[in-house]
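Q: Predict the assembly, please.
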Amino acid sequence: MNMELSRRAFLRVSGAGIAGTSLGAMGFGDVEEAQAAAIKPFRLVNTTETRNTCTYCSVACGIIIYSKGDLKKGEKADIVHIEGDSDHPTNRGTLCPKGAALLDIVKAKTRLTEPMVRRAGSDTFEPISWDEAMDKIARAMKADRDANFVAANKDGTPVNRWTTTGFLAASATTNETAWCTYKVVRSTGMLVFDNQARV
Ligand code: SF4
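A: Predicted assembly structure:
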């Protein structure tokens, strides 16, 4: 037995084997051959597999994103299918209904794909670059912290609190990213800190 065989590959192979064996055992050998001849080409052939994490909640199920389009040839990549990663220790290939509908997020016309800003006096949002967005956020945070940071309480006890800005983090991250985020946010003195996980 090939011990390198992944769980996903094993399920694929064993699933085909079970179907064939069952039909053969019932005396449907010809049917089995006809069925095999009529099978359409596997729709994920020639796609690129990318492992990722479901964007929705803190369970952080592993997913595989299948895309078409060769970037090396200047083609635009297009995601054509998303499914649970059966090699992932958290979900072992399963997804809840929200995770199973992830492709709808990717294709949604209302999905934000770039930072937007509503400038002072304007009533509409306009796109800006990530560099400009990060600069604006950093400057706004520094200005607010400089103005409102509480180094000590009325008794003179050091408290190092910053309560006028909050931080909403993502739950769909690795432990390492979450650890770094927590350390950075708390090191600023920020107390209002949450994420979108339903916990
Ligand atoms: S939303 Fe569903 S599929 Fe996505 S991480 Fe949570 S439980 Fe997993």
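Residues 54, 56-57, 59-61, 91, 95-96, 98-99 surround iron/sulfur cluster (CB under 6 Å). The chain has a mean pLDDT of 85.
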